[in-house]
Amino acid sequence: LRCRPEMRGRVLALQAMVFLGSTPIGGPVIGVISEFGGARAGIVVGGLACLGAATYGWMRDRTLHAPTHVPVTPPDVAAQIASSS
């Protein structure tokens, strides 16, 4: 978990709600797909959904923790600022 310690309980509660709350929605959807397309189609759609979610999470994690560039003030400008005050 990458969150502040005081937010950890809220993050875990949200994670539990997402995982437990997605089953009543995803189960019937995959059931209908399997009913009309066969068991193989249901497994393929479920696998593609899993890969899509993993890719989204991976890409989001990469952008959140990308290194940021901090501009450095040149020494002569810093000296001018210090001498003018």
Q: Can you offer a commentary on this structure?
A:
By secondary structure, the chain is mostly helical. It has one domain (5-84). Helix content is 78%, strand content 0%. The protein has 3 helices and no strands. It has helices spanning 8-37, 39-64, 75-84. α1 packs antiparallel against α2 (39-64). The longest helix has 30 residues, at 8-37. The radius of gyration is 24 Å and the shape is elongated.
Cα-to-Cα separation, first versus last residue? 46 Å
Whole-angstrom Rg? 24 Å
Mean pLDDT figure:
84
Which structural class matches the secondary elements?
A: mainly alpha
List the helices and strands and how they pair.
Layout: H1 8-37, H2 39-64, H3 75-84
Helix pairs in contact: 1-2
Put the structure in a nutshell.
The protein is mainly alpha-helical. It has helices spanning 8-37, 39-64, 75-84. It has one domain.
